[in-house]
Amino acid sequence: MWRYYIHLAWISVKKTPVLSMLMVLAIGMGIAACLTTLTLFNVVSSNPLAHKNETTFAVQLDTWASDEDYWGANGVPVQTTFQDAKAIYEAGVAEQVALSSRVGLTVEDSSYAKTPEVSDSRLVTRDFFRLFDIPFIYGSAWSTEADTNAERQTVISESLNNRFFDGVNSVGQSLLLEGESFTVAGVVSDSWLMTPSVYDLNMGAFKWPSHVYIPFFSVEQRAYSNWGNMEGWKSESNRSHQDFLASEVVWVQAWVELATPEQKSEFEQYLVNYIQEQKQRGRFQRPLKYLLNTPEQWLAINDVVTRDNYVLVYLSVGFMLVCLVNAIVLLLAKFLRKSPEAGLRRALGATRMSLFVQHLVEASVIGVLGSMLGLVLAWLGLMGVRVLYSNYENVAVMGIYTFVGAVVFAVMATVISGALPAWQVARTQPARYLKAQ
Amino acid sequence: MLSMQSIGKAYRTDMVETHALRDFSLEVEPGEFVAVTGPSGSGKTTFLSIAGLLESFDGGRYVLDGDDVSALNDTERSRLRNEKIGFIFQGFNLISDLNLFDNVDVPLRYRGLGKQDRRARIEYALERVGLASRQKHMPSQLSGGQQQRVAIARALAGKPAFLLADEPTGNLDSLMARQVMDMLSEINEQGMTIVMVTHDPDLARRASRNIQIVDGQVTDFRLYEPANRHEHETALEV
Amino acid sequence: MLDVMPILKSLWRSKIGPFLIICQMALTVAIVSNSVFFLSGKLETIARPTGLADTEVAMAKVKQRPGATFSESVLAEDIASLQSVAGVAQAAAIGQGIPFSQSGGTSGFSILPDSDPDRVNRPAAFLQVDHRVIDTLGVSLRQGRNFRAEEIKYYAPNQEPQSANAIITASLASDIYGQQDPINQTLYLAGVWPLTVIGVVEDFIGYFPHSDYSYSNVLVGALELSASMNYILRSDNLTPASVLPEVRRALQGADPRRIVRDDKTMASMKSHVYQDDYAMVILLLVVNAGLIFVNVLGVVGITTYWVNQRRRQIGVRRALGATRFAIQRYFLLENVVLVVLASVLGAAAAAAASYYFVVQYAMELLPGWYMLAAATMMLLVTIAAAWVPAHGATRVQPREAVSA
């Protein structure tokens, strides 16, 4: 019977090609709009650290002024001071401590043969690479000793390696950073692109990874030009770099990995003790407050999903609704025009159910065609989005789950919207149209 | 074959109640060719709708080919229509988007027959009305008389218990009308029960029994001689 | 207008179709009014006056070879070589806070020092500038005077001068000083660094245009002499992009280890800053165009259906003497009735959606005339869409009333 219904549906679709095309077009547009914005939303709202969401934490310490809240996020500074970051690292309570800060470094090769450049760089502790799953193509992260002693070692990106070392394994070679010689310990793959860049949500959540990494505590020896955010509340006059390091300015992003609940509570106990100890030294003037945020919480706190993202989703869902209602209206018009045929079929012995199914199949044929058109339009739409938003360039791509989900959703939506017109036509009284020919 | 006892049917709108049939009784024996006549508004159409199980009725009892259909639900009535009744309408009521084969196929589809069975029945039925060679033609390519013959084929393909014809020649010119009537007579002679509703006394005369409905009740019936055999043989040759 | 009652009655009888089309139009009115309001806000942000000669300005960053820092003489040489480039009318040095660069500093400014408990901080962006910046950016002075060359404080990293002169924008001046004359008043940066206000300039957009106080800017007459410096220039023709290659060469000078980077026009910085807003505007426009298109499809479809369904009735009317015009008017009027019903429903939905956005996302409440405009647009579009099938109805011949 299904083949019969599909046969009939196809005859009916062909019978009114313009109306059928209009319906397919309307459904296709609605689905494309939804699919495009949902893909975008999916990218923006994804959590790249979901697989370790329960064991990875962004540390927030409330070191802000006694008389005012921190102005952004959740009212607690989103970065930490250098001294607090260092204390957390040195305490060794957390299994892994990833401290980091974005800087700009002049990169030169030791023979000055290549054009020098100022590269997007990060000061990081070695745990940064493991905590954020950064894959190495050559070498590895520097050693723990190199970390604590701030040895002149560096990890560079694949593209920087291509530029300065012609893509060969450069581990052990040296590179001049800010005029000082650093030994390459490892090269990380360009394939690593965390979206959103949960490790650093300052100045946009969609950024390219840095090209140069050097040991975090290098900053104790000299100042680097900070490319991240620095925020302060205290009127301090920092007359030297050492003053700056000891100041209340927050500029370090601190992450810890705590594999078990026990480790977590141990670390929390440590933080409580540390803050109380600091309070006695006149710091931490506000009520004791610290936060260990999971990546998911961290993305929410930093408003990675913007108002515009939500507006777009509402808009496209609204559009989709209009398109579906439109499809219902047109289907209704089309089906009711075929009422005489429906009446005849009833007279010849079709049950209401079989008429209902017949017309539902016809609606579904339109729906499937519309969905296919929708997928093509969505693909074009995503190309458009990539043109419009350069920072979504390589992230606004439809995943297989989105794709399959969209097809299922689209067909279901049209089947559901076909149900009402199909029911209307199935209710046709058999006697009604037989006389009035 | 068809037994109606004290059937009543009233149509209600907001303000008025119209009795289309009142205490209507009728018996049709197997093999009969019954013509139902009556003036416009007498209840002919209502009788046809009820006899064809297209509409329910308010009171009385209706036994069709041994089944009491008085209390059946919609789905059961659909099934019975499909199996027992062959319809022939004034306006032919072919589906214009389907070719002849598919048109005759419609009731068979709802019967749930297998592909081979359906094909055999359709081909037989179309052959019987002389249109076997035009299976793939669309209804619009046929004359009115041919269309009505397709409708007859459609009615016969389901091997119904009886044919229910509603002004079967109303939309045809006199030559075509005669051909169709000859065909019905022939089918009747082969044993098929036929109930025909018409307002045309000339047509009614060709039936074996005549019933007249006035104001929703049977008022009178007359018996006529069977139709002239010679006449319909020549008609089929055309 | 006598036709309205029968239209309403016939709509009521056919229920489901008209109900759905009203829903569709109502949703459209709600979506269009809200999204047009939303995008007009975006366009307003993009189109607001910058207070700058932004079409004539370009910038470049320079970083000295490792180990070297800027000095007053290096600065003077760079400015001189920039000015020698053909097409460059003016050049200046900015330490930080170049408008539209999205990189700079924001601080609290107050008329009282940090020690005073009554201190009220006004947030504002600050630019570290030399005496040429105001003219190069094309900012106009409203009150007081510009910096003099000898007043600019050049200082080594971490060695901020004890005091400096400052010029503030009109918005900040009225925020902080109200009716008072700000000239020669002391303004504290972060409560510790006393600045003397020597002038007030017309508002201009600062380094972060999306900030709530993008017009609140403080130009400080001091420059830190570190390893990096930013230069801005103003071209005397309208295409600053064309002078950039020469500017790059001029700044590169003789030292191959010196790095010149981020040379770009302010126009390109501006379009980068507003990229997301442009994208949003375009997406909203596309979806709205799609919405209107779908409604046209719907109206054409449903009117065609109604006309077909009522051919006989139209034939009767024609036979009874209705003119072609009256028939067309009937169907158009039917559309008007639908749109009016839809607009009422749509306005309610629009208001509800807007209220939700106000509560959830702190947006502004949708003004009523946006709904009115959306409804009017809907009316015009649907009348246009219904025109063709309604006109088709006029071709129904009176004899269709009688023929079977």
TrEMBL record, chain A:
<feature type="domain" description="ABC3 transporter permease C-terminal">
    <location>
        <begin position="315"/>
        <end position="430"/>
    </location>
</feature>
<feature type="transmembrane region" description="Helical">
    <location>
        <begin position="400"/>
        <end position="423"/>
    </location>
</feature>
<keyword id="KW-0812">Transmembrane</keyword>
<dbReference type="Pfam" id="PF02687">
    <property type="entry name" value="FtsX"/>
</dbReference>
<dbReference type="InterPro" id="IPR025857">
    <property type="entry name" value="MacB_PCD"/>
</dbReference>
<dbReference type="InterPro" id="IPR003838">
    <property type="entry name" value="ABC3_permease_C"/>
</dbReference>
<keyword id="KW-1003">Cell membrane</keyword>
<keyword id="KW-0472">Membrane</keyword>
<feature type="domain" description="MacB-like periplasmic core">
    <location>
        <begin position="20"/>
        <end position="269"/>
    </location>
</feature>
<feature type="transmembrane region" description="Helical">
    <location>
        <begin position="354"/>
        <end position="380"/>
    </location>
</feature>
<protein>
    <submittedName>
        <fullName>ABC transporter permease</fullName>
    </submittedName>
</protein>
<keyword id="KW-1133">Transmembrane helix</keyword>
<feature type="transmembrane region" description="Helical">
    <location>
        <begin position="21"/>
        <end position="44"/>
    </location>
</feature>
<feature type="transmembrane region" description="Helical">
    <location>
        <begin position="311"/>
        <end position="333"/>
    </location>
</feature>
<dbReference type="Pfam" id="PF12704">
    <property type="entry name" value="MacB_PCD"/>
</dbReference>
UniProtKB/TrEMBL annotation, chain B:
<keyword id="KW-0813">Transport</keyword>
<dbReference type="InterPro" id="IPR017911">
    <property type="entry name" value="MacB-like_ATP-bd"/>
</dbReference>
<dbReference type="InterPro" id="IPR017871">
    <property type="entry name" value="ABC_transporter-like_CS"/>
</dbReference>
<feature type="domain" description="ABC transporter">
    <location>
        <begin position="2"/>
        <end position="238"/>
    </location>
</feature>
<dbReference type="InterPro" id="IPR027417">
    <property type="entry name" value="P-loop_NTPase"/>
</dbReference>
<dbReference type="InterPro" id="IPR003593">
    <property type="entry name" value="AAA+_ATPase"/>
</dbReference>
<protein>
    <submittedName>
        <fullName>ABC transporter ATP-binding protein</fullName>
    </submittedName>
</protein>
<keyword id="KW-0067">ATP-binding</keyword>
<dbReference type="GO" id="GO:0005524">
    <property type="term" value="F:ATP binding"/>
</dbReference>
<keyword id="KW-0547">Nucleotide-binding</keyword>
<dbReference type="InterPro" id="IPR015854">
    <property type="entry name" value="ABC_transpr_LolD-like"/>
</dbReference>
<dbReference type="Pfam" id="PF00005">
    <property type="entry name" value="ABC_tran"/>
</dbReference>
<dbReference type="InterPro" id="IPR003439">
    <property type="entry name" value="ABC_transporter-like_ATP-bd"/>
</dbReference>
UniProtKB/TrEMBL annotation, chain C:
<dbReference type="InterPro" id="IPR003838">
    <property type="entry name" value="ABC3_permease_C"/>
</dbReference>
<feature type="domain" description="MacB-like periplasmic core">
    <location>
        <begin position="26"/>
        <end position="212"/>
    </location>
</feature>
<keyword id="KW-1133">Transmembrane helix</keyword>
<keyword id="KW-0812">Transmembrane</keyword>
<keyword id="KW-0472">Membrane</keyword>
<protein>
    <submittedName>
        <fullName>FtsX-like permease family protein</fullName>
    </submittedName>
</protein>
<feature type="transmembrane region" description="Helical">
    <location>
        <begin position="278"/>
        <end position="308"/>
    </location>
</feature>
<feature type="transmembrane region" description="Helical">
    <location>
        <begin position="329"/>
        <end position="357"/>
    </location>
</feature>
<feature type="transmembrane region" description="Helical">
    <location>
        <begin position="369"/>
        <end position="390"/>
    </location>
</feature>
<feature type="transmembrane region" description="Helical">
    <location>
        <begin position="16"/>
        <end position="39"/>
    </location>
</feature>
<dbReference type="InterPro" id="IPR050250">
    <property type="entry name" value="Macrolide_Exporter_MacB"/>
</dbReference>
<dbReference type="Pfam" id="PF12704">
    <property type="entry name" value="MacB_PCD"/>
</dbReference>
<feature type="transmembrane region" description="Helical">
    <location>
        <begin position="187"/>
        <end position="208"/>
    </location>
</feature>
<dbReference type="InterPro" id="IPR025857">
    <property type="entry name" value="MacB_PCD"/>
</dbReference>
<comment type="similarity">
    <text>Belongs to the ABC-4 integral membrane protein family.</text>
</comment>
